[in-house]
Amino acid sequence: MLKLLRDEFLLLTLLALLPILLWLSPASWAELPELVNWQTIGALAGLMILSRGLEESNGLALAGQQLLRAARSERMLAAALVLFAAAISTVLTNDVALFIVVPLTLSLGPLIDLPLGRLVIFEALAVNAGSALSPIGNPQNLFLWQSSGVGFLTFTLAMLPLALGLVLLLLAAVPLGFSARSLTLKSPAIRLRPDKKLLGLSLLLYPPMLLLTELGRAPLAALIIGVLFLLLARRVLLGVDWLLLLVFVLMFIDLGLLAALPVFADTSTRLESLPGGIFSAGVLLSQLISNVPAAIFLQTFTPDWRLLAWGVSVGGFGLAIGSLANLIALRLARQPRLWLEFHLWSLPALLLGTALALILLAAG
After folding, report:
1. Whole-model pTM over 0.85
2. Which residues pair with 182 in a beta bridge?
3. Which three-class secondary structure state does DSSP give residue 73?
4. CA–CA distances in Å: residue 228 to residues 51, 65, 136, 204
5. How many CB atoms lie within 10 A of CB 271?
6. Contacting residues for 209 by C-beta, under 8 A, at least 6 apart
7. 51, 76, 169, 189, 312 from 61: Cα distances, Å
8. Contacts of 220 (CB under 8 A, 6+ apart)
């Protein structure tokens, strides 16, 4: 329901903007499909199906439970959840990772006295940091990977220093937010049974999906995966957030029309004049419109996908709007006054993350 409300709001906003932007733009209705990056849409569709399959199989949730059982202190539990959230966000999108790890964390409330809200905050920051590593970790990386034309490994290696640095930054903050007191987990937080067939099918299809995407055949890969799940696991397709695909199509169109307006004719020159260039633009614009639309908009004005990817990744910190994953985590937590505490951690994370990225860029 939360994702549906989010997507419906975005859809209505983008639909309302479309006729205005089209009226201001020299483009015609017939040219609108050319503004959409269909490779990204195809890749997103296939990965959404596979991510939903992994989620419904309970495989990752059970792995999270094993981490929880192994934690011996509040601080160790927080570190384990940060690493788990960061790790699974490299395979799933960051918001899907939150729909797994946040409910798992909240289920511990009746069993152990924990700062649940703060754990959720760190998990939100962790999925933004971890997802920065992978071309499929979040929508903005997926778009930039497809639009750049570079290989999966090339993209990953380019993002590795930043993602590793951001995760280490969060781990270094864990002792500041969590005590070293010991914990006793009386019983499993959630009793789950894995769907081994669904888990196996989802994992088996990841390599061909990534291979076909890298070869520029993402729509074909999505079609094949969709047919297989229709035949073998239809319920997974019913749970996919298809409305999100329409939101992304409209986002490409609206932002493409916006970027083509005469007022933005010299935007690339102005961006280059900023301290930090397109990196700083990505960080700052993410604080205003979130990092996914920021990446789509700014990509029009720069060929430097790496700097832009670093900027919008760091931009996921800071204000809650910086990443939709932040908003999802805060809504899922349902903790009073959590918005204020979130910014007490996320704003310093933005400043430190920006400084770290600039140091890494200067050194590299």
Report:
1. no
2. 73
3. strand
4. 15, 30, 21, 12
5. 20
6. 46, 47, 50, 221, 222, 225
7. 13, 18, 25, 11, 28
8. 42, 212
DSSP E strands, 87-133: none
Distance CA 346, CA 118 (A): 11
3-state secondary structure of 261: coil
Q: d(Cα 2, Cα 75) in Å, to the nearest integer?
A: 30
* Residues in Cβ contact with 290 at an 8 Å cutoff, skipping those fewer than 6 apart: 321, 322, 323, 324
> CB neighbours (10 Å) of residue 321?
15
Express each pLDDT in 28-40 by its tens digit: 888 889 888 898 8
Token couple for 301: 């004005």
3-state DSSP of 174-223: HHHHCCCCECCCCCCCCCCCCCHHHHHHHHHHHHHHHHHHHCCCHHHHHH
CB neighbours (10 Å) of residue 3?
16
Which of 7-11, 110-114, 285-289, 331-335 is modeled with the greatest confidence?
285-289
Q: Which of 26, 42, 90, 54 is nearest to 257 (CA)?
A: 26
What would the two tokens of residue 352 be? 């430190």
pLDDT in tens, 84-138: 999 999 987 888 888 788 878 877 776 677 888 999 999 999 999 999 999 999 9
How many Cβ atoms are within 10 Å of 197's Cβ, its own excluded?
11
Which residues have a Cβ under 8 Å from the Cβ of 70 and sit 6 or more positions away? 80
Give rounded-to-5 percent helix, strand, coil for the chain.
80, 0, 20
Which residue, 64, 189, 177, is CA-closest to 125? 177
Tell me the Ramachandran region of residue 195: left when phi exceeds 0, alpha when psi lies from -120 to 50, beta otherwise.
Answer: beta
